């Protein structure tokens, strides 16, 4: 009896809570979405109509002129190619290195292991901009200025990714690896055919995060790439802002376009994302 | 047969099987060789430059011509440099404003999102999207949306009879827009991490508390929040470190201005190192920034450990 009553009551209050939280979540989502909505509206608007006349929440005569102007003002097609090449190569490299290091730190025992792990994690505390000056001198000494190696190689090892991999791979049962080892599988073989297939959610997280970091990266490419032909999209966008700061449709159009690749990668992998984050012990 | 608990940080590494000596040494070789690409990159592009930063901070160097050893002169100059202190205060203020607010909002969203709800996937994506957008895009959009004259925020404020906020010409306004924009980009990440944390809380705990008559707020305060503590520690440390590294948004949104109202440690170091070409001085700012982060992180961990010892 009491149990039934309690259930009834909690269901009732549960319903009130449910609608309250749905309203709050939707209201919050509207606030979150509004800047993006405004970017879209701006991108498709006529430049003159934006800053004069009444505030319009939908463009009177939607136009693609903003996008066209952006591509006319700066070679954004080239910038997109550059960014894509850098992000894909850097992502493949980083994800591979992360997985290898995470696997070793989670599943091997050797002298100095703890020291290596602590050292790697401690690099998280080093702001990249702190070491930028010597890094720049080093890269210049290697003759890498205006070369994509300067953008890709110094960022190939990522402490955060290694940390995620280690935490995730601690959850892979040792028995499975031990069995493969008894069957005579080598180190790389075990990694390739057992560890990797069990790490799909982890790989999804790494792909999303690394692609995003590399695609969005700004300060370091800005320093090492001086030739406009080599610019990445963020540099081009900052340049557009500096040179044509009041052409809001062009700016917002390009800002939106430059976000699309990250959104596509995110959409493809997002289903596995939360699981990957959860199992990486990011909590 | 231990079942390996997923993500148990302290999960024991396998019990060593009998034929130990040879296995260990072979494993050691494999371990180091699999680690070596990472270690080389870390050593060459991070540890060496870090040491070089310390070394460079003792020199006066423009990047051209010979550098001159100046000892602690850069540090002495830094100590009396009002822009440096302003940048330090700004960075601290930025962390103090963005980290707690984004954590509270992110936790709120995660709690509301942690039960079945129609359209949950879409809502989650909407909250998360700002986090994946680049700092440059966010700042370019921010300049337009928070433009004092023609931006939509001020136009909305004015059309509802309020005064527009001087987001660009006023020190507090500029910091305000920077903080608001940063919170917008951060809450989605906080939400995802807290959602993962919430999934690890056994339902039985909350059900038991409910049976004992604990209300929603009591459950939240006495069970959920304490059990999420590791998540919170992680997010605070990460948030503070990120705050001390904030660059892209500031550089494009305000350029550190008006005056140096939004100058941050890292933007100041960049300006000194690559605009003013005072590389030794920039390195000094870098060393001190690094020390700030190290000390803050250490203090925070000690406090957490002391609190745990008290329990």
TrEMBL record, chain A:
Any one cellular-component term (Gene Ontology): plasma membrane
Topology of this chain in the membrane: Multi-pass membrane protein
UniProt domain ABC transmembrane type-1: residue ranges: 80-269
Ranges that cross the membrane: 20-40, 79-103, 115-136, 148-169, 190-213, 248-269
Entry keyword annotation includes Cytoplasm: no
Gene Ontology terms describing biological process: transmembrane transport
Cell compartments where the protein resides: Cell membrane
Pfam families the UniProt entry points to: BPD_transp_1 (PF00528)
Keyword terms: Cell membrane, Membrane, Transmembrane, Transmembrane helix, Transport
InterPro entries: MetI-like (IPR000515), MetI-like_sf (IPR035906)
Family: Belongs to the binding-protein-dependent transport system permease family.
UniProt name for this protein: Alpha-1,4-digalacturonate transport system permease protein
Organism from which the protein derives: Klenkia soli
Automatic annotation (TrEMBL), chain B:
Superkingdom of origin: Bacteria
A Pfam family this chain is assigned to: BPD_transp_1
CDD domains, A to Z: TM_PBP2
Its membrane topology: Multi-pass membrane protein
Chief location: membrane
Chain intervals for the UniProt region annotation (Disordered): 1-22
Keywords from the UniProt entry: Cell membrane, Membrane, Sugar transport, Transmembrane, Transmembrane helix, Transport
Biased composition (Low complexity): 1-13
Residues spanning the membrane: 29-56, 93-113, 125-146, 174-198, 219-241, 280-301
Localization, UniProt: Cell membrane
UniProt GO cellular component terms: plasma membrane
A GO biological process held by the record: transmembrane transport
Domain ABC transmembrane type-1 per the UniProt entry, residue ranges: 88-300
Family: Belongs to the binding-protein-dependent transport system permease family.
Name of the protein described by the UniProt record: Multiple sugar transport system permease protein
Species the sequence originates in: Klenkia soli
